[in-house]
Design goal:
Strand content of chain B: 5-15%
Oligomer: heterodimer
Structural class of chain A: alpha/beta
Number of domains of chain B: 2
Distance between the termini of chain B: 49 Å
Number of strands of chain B: 9
Largest sheet of chain A: 6 strands, mixed
CATH architecture of the largest domain in chain A: Up-down Bundle
Shape of chain B: elongated
Number of helices of chain B: 20
CATH superfamily of the largest domain in chain A: ABC transporter type 1, transmembrane domain
Order of helices and strands of chain A: HHHHHHHHHHEEEHEEHEHHHHEHEHEEHH
Radius of gyration of chain B: 34 Å
Strand order of the largest sheet of chain B: 5-6-7-3-8-9
Strand order of the largest sheet of chain A: 6-7-8-3-9-10
Radius of gyration of chain A: 34 Å
Structural class of chain B: alpha/beta
CATH topology of the largest domain in chain B: ABC transporter transmembrane region fold
Number of helices of chain A: 20
Number of strands of chain A: 10
Chain lengths: 603, 610
Amino acid sequence: MSARSTAPQQSPLPAWRYLWQLARFRPGLYLLLGFFEIMFFGVTPQVVGFITQAFFDRLTGDAPAGLDAYTLAALVVVTALARVAFIFADVAVYFNFRYTVAALLRKNLFEYILKRPGARAVPGSPGEAISRFRGDVDEVAFFMAESLSLAGFGLFALVAVVVMVGINPRITLFVFAPLVLVVVAANLAMGGIQAYREALREATGRVTGFIGELFGAVQAVKVATAEPRMMERFRQLNDVRQRAALKDRLFNELLGSVFRNTVNLGTGMILLLAAQAMRDGTFTVGDLALFVYYLGFVTDFIATIGTKLAWYKQVGVSIGRMVRMLQDAPAEAIVTHGAIYMHGPLPEVPYVAKSETHRLELLQAAGLTYRYPDSDRGIENVSLRLPRGAFTVVTGRVGSGKTTLLRVLLGLLPKAAGEIRWNGQVVTDPASFFVPPRSAYTAQVPLLFSETLRDNILMGMPEEVFDLERAIRRAALERDVVELEDGLATMLGAKGVKLSGGQRQRAAAARMFVRDPELLVFDDLSSALDVETERMLWERVFEMGESTCLVVSHRRPALQRADQIIVLKDGRVEAQGRLEVLLETCGEMRRLWEGSVNEADGL
Amino acid sequence: MSKLGSMGPQRTSISLKAYWNLLVSYLRRQWLWVTLLAVLLLLNIGLQLANPQIMRRFIDLTQAGEATAVLLHIALLFVGVALLQQVVAVLAAYVGERVGWTATNALRADLAEHCVQLDMSFHNEHSPGEMIERIDGDVTALASFFSQFVIQVLGNLLLIVGVLVLLFREDWRIGLALAVFSLAALLILGRLRDIAVPHWMAERQASADLFGFLEERLAGTEDIRANGARAYVLRGFYRLMRAQMKVSLKAALMINILLNAMLLLVAVGTAVSFAVGAYLFYAGAITIGTAYLAFHYTAMLERPINVITRQMQELQRAGAGIARIRELFQVPGRIQPPRLADSVALPDGPLAVTFEDVTFSYQNPPALDKVPDSPALNVLHDLSFHLRPGTVLGLLGRTGSGKTTLTRLIFRLYDPDSGAIYLGGSPPSRDLRQIPLPDLRQRVGMVTQDIQLFHAAVRDNLTFFDRAIPDERVLQVIGELGLGEWLRALPQGLDTVLESSGGGLSAGEAQLLAFARIFLCNPGLVILDEASSRLDPVTEALIERAVDRLVQGRTAIIIAHRLGTLQRADQIMILDGGRVREYGDRAALANDSSSYFYHLLQTGLEEVLA
């Protein structure tokens, strides 16, 4: 399993496989879109072309019969009205499809990220991940929606070829010969396009990532008077991105220009060839008008094929970036079909009522090992045994692996080795297993969200079933709730900033308590609390009696109350047992304990 | 979700002047490039106008039975002009892109700078994800406005004028008919200009809400996962995504009213040229070549009208962006820098601190419907105290009693609602509001509860990208804090890139890094806010010496929950509900059995004795 976290990224499937899945997501909508695109790009322009040809032939007398010139002029307007009617329907279908595809991609990305080991859910910063959620998703959805205009164009081009061959096969050949050239040129240029686009996306990711971090850490920036330097850094990142964008643009323009120029050469060829035919009288002015009219569309079509090919490669880049964000996900995870809830009721938030099947008798772990990538830190061969009702404290110095141990046990980090057993049964997927009502967790620096305090604590649990008030009391938060401007309905602001550090920690504890789990896991719960609040909190935790607790702490009340203490040093278990014994036998434990003595004695 | 976003879709007309001002201010700095761009675009237009003339000549000459050699030359000329036009077009696109990027990057930087200067009450309301959307997303929507708008709109208007002039030259009736048509077309497009702006604004805000939500949740995956809140978070995500889709659809439909109008206009134009051409040809006033020219030029009018329409669409999106950007620029910095004349410098050495009747609440802005000094909302009430230079103050109190707020005020992360804070002692007293912010924050150092790390090298995380600080100094500080071992374990030493989430770094280590940051400055006042709360006793002992040295010769305010951290305090202040409960010399309070501090000491010692 360690191979999973450090293995080279698995290479994504070819892009069309993903796109095909997306096309099949709402097949009816996609086909309807195809119909409109064909009507809009394929059929109505043909009519205009024929009218133009008829008009000039009528003027020169090459086509004496038929509608007169003024009727033809009126027909142009009628055709346009028909087109407008199509557009309205087309636009509604087009954007519906496009946003549906985007929604599916975003849902799959986010859903999968929430399934990953929580402590390493996305590589890089959240801000950087946002650039993938935004730009890369949009790119793919846009491409999918546009993919069918090619069908419309294709149909138009097909009809055009048939008509032109009917008029003059030789000239027609010279119009379409450049097409082959273009496709070859575009294919030759693909490698370059991809590299430039990748560079641009990466530079963009760095810019958005930086903005996210800048504002996430804005207080630290202000405190350090680092604004000018941060702005300098921002400008540098912007410059890099600008250079990447210019390269990307120039390359695209050159490629587009190649397409357009081949077509213009084609036009020149028509003129050269038509000169002879027009003098022979086999090619009328109306035919010339039709050819040139067609050429405008064929220009677009050829350019479209070329740019679509190039775009396809760029879309491949975006897909690759999404796939890589999910790290070890199955290749097709991002395009898996599923409900996106764009209409109708939103999904209910299910909760699992606690039953006998969840009851914890004994939790065991053996040989737990984890290494942080690119460092030799982590935990090595840690074993522990938590019987029902036991209060277990993990202690050790900074960096000794306490938090890592909790994370690995709960599946928030993927273990490299080791086995976890719940009531003797092996836990195969700890990440999905260690959730309420089996266990709940409060991180050392818990995160709250910009919602109300109530929503932050309940996080979707039905208030009528779970005892919110008791949880708040257990977390020693009841006085703070009263003092908040709107009590439980207070909006906490981004990442819960409206609360103090200690309040945030206790709100997160309430979030854990309200779930009434069998196993309570908390990491340094009291680190931001004053002495009195801390004591109150410990008392209330101990009052809960039955609960099984796994706690990281170096506080005396916790150590003294512990049924067993696990002393970690450099990622390994240094010693294990009750405090009295450890004070006798373990030097590290003595040092940690003496440290707390000095701390309080010094007054 | 946010105050800025609450202004739903209402009809917001962006005055042309607003567009113009923005353009001028960001294009003026690169006028050479802009001039070059203009020249290229004019050239492009000229070449576009030339080709139909060649076509007309070709048709008339074939109809007249001209020799093939002459026709060949004309055809080659056509190809040559077309090629040249392509070269010019590529250059113009490149230069345009460059102008656009230079302008938008300058705007991004200005916007980011402005927002960073805003006080914390702003940042509490706006998540980093939303800021990404507003600083990058909104500005990106403006890119083509800068690079293309003026040039394209002016250029294509010129192209229209050029076409009309050439048509007038052929026949005044053709010219007149199409001039009337063009004018009507442009007027109609002008009227429809703003139709989608409010919808785009709503769309932008819905996007910002969605991505703000995402960013926050992505940072908190651990909390979500381990507390079984996945379904709940996904539900919120669906709700925001649905809202975004709804407003986006609406905006797209509104935009397409423009596209439809354009299609119809072009058809009417073609019909007009057909009718007039047929009439004049039958009347013998023009040749068939000229009739074709009229048709071709009309078809050519489609392009500029099309381009102008597209630019109008862009302008609508840009308009939404501009409105949101202006909104952001107009958020007043509640923390006003001192006027130059009033500003005073801080003295060297330890700084005195004085609070005079300071009252503060986090209400932002102070709500109008509530009594402004409603005591329940105030975090600090009439707080007064004086710290002599070099004094160490120990600050105690329950969580939420206002300790952290007090230190934030010293940093001017907020300004007090009433009362004043003085720094640097008297005479003359220096009101915080008279001290230039950089000076203030340079002379005050702080380690907070929240350690914020950047996705950047260790060095940059410690120096905040200040390359003037030599590596030796950084290494020395790291060594003094006992982080040497940790650093050696890193694969690239100081160049190792840290994850912004602090992954692979224990919270205690992160806190030591925060200490390192402050050691790299040389402040006259240091504030330690629960600074050692996450350190185990052994590690804490490790930095005790360092803290002792840091406090030496400086004024210090130490917030601590652990009584042990207060042993070096000269004075003790205990806050309760934003008021001073007890304030005095530590030694005196510790020996006074009636003092609350004495009582606290007993409680704290219980921890040891129990």
